Amino acid sequence: MAPPVIIGTRGSKLALWQAEWVRRALRERFDDTDVELLVIRTQGDKILDVPLAQVGGKGLFVKEIEEALQAGRVDLAVHSMKDMPVEIPAGLAVGAVPEREMPTDVFISRDGRGLRETPSGGAVGTSSLRRAAQLRHLRPDLKIVPLRGNLDTRLRKLDTENLAAVVLAAAGVKRLGLAHRITEHLPPDLMLPAVGQGALCIEIREHDPRIRSLVAVLDHPATRAAVGGERAFLRRLEGGCQVPVAGYGCVAQGQFTLTGLVADLDGGTVIKHHLSGAVEDAERIGRELAEILLTRGADEILEKLTRTAP
């Protein structure tokens, strides 16, 4: 008997759903393989009362799991792709990127009114500088308030903290069976998603042929290409949770189209552009799009935000 495959995961409901989805998918394809979950608490799970931008942002939800992977305590890790830093630690690799769930954001209100109908002065909760900047650009009359915690905690705060609405990722809401709570889907032309949003990352040790061959069956080439282009865009901008950066790529009929955005914190300046090309050139397109935004003023925004970051 081969040893069981151990999946490292965070312990939130959404993280466990994602890890269980991978476990079940592997068991369906390899019924003679035992697959188990190991819950690992990350720094991001411990710090719940401080905005992500003030405590390091990307990496907060993956570092301890990656350390367990490097040490051999787990055989693979399941992350939300949008939590992944653009640089993968030495010795680790992205083994598979499954087909993406809906990548957009959703608006969930207490009274059933959408973003445009929410009364002036209403408090909208979000954990993301990206969402906050775009909300301020669209509705400068709303009050944007920081909102930490896992998905069900944030939905509970909608009712307990006198919020008019919250903005969340559609993928998490759908995966947890809460789609009935959605008031309005925010399309990318209204609210551009985070890089990697809606996609999973199955991380493995770089030189582990057994695990690499197992997870390869879960890879979705179009999603991997789109996410690769988005992450190349983010890498060139050197962006993270401390900067309002958005990027969304899609593949259709052999073409890859990437839309990118950089905004200042108050939403007063939003620099946005899109670029298209062959799918195999997705990462190059990501870098080129970043260069275009930099020449149009994103460099000044990034320099300012980096200089004033905590």
Structure description:
With 310 residues, this protein is α/β, with parallel strands linked by helices. The protein folds into three domains: 1-98 and 199-219, Periplasmic binding protein-like II (D-Maltodextrin-Binding Protein, domain 2), CATH 3.40.190; 105-186, 3-Layer(aba) Sandwich (D-Maltodextrin-Binding Protein, domain 2); 221-310, Porphobilinogen deaminase, C-terminal domain (Double Stranded RNA Binding Domain), CATH 3.30.160.40. It has ten helices and 13 strands. It has helices at residues 13-29, 43-46, 52-55, 63-71, 129-138, 151-160, 170-175, 209-215, 221-237, 282-308, and strands at 5-9, 35-39, 76-80, 92-96, 105-109, 123-126, 143-146, 165-169, 184-186, 200-205, 245-252, 255-263, 270-278. It has a five-stranded mixed beta sheet with strand order 2-1-3-10-4, with helices on both faces. Strands 7-6-8-5-9 form a five-stranded mixed beta sheet, sandwiched between helices. α9 runs parallel beside α10. It starts with a strand and ends with a helix. 44% of the residues are buried.
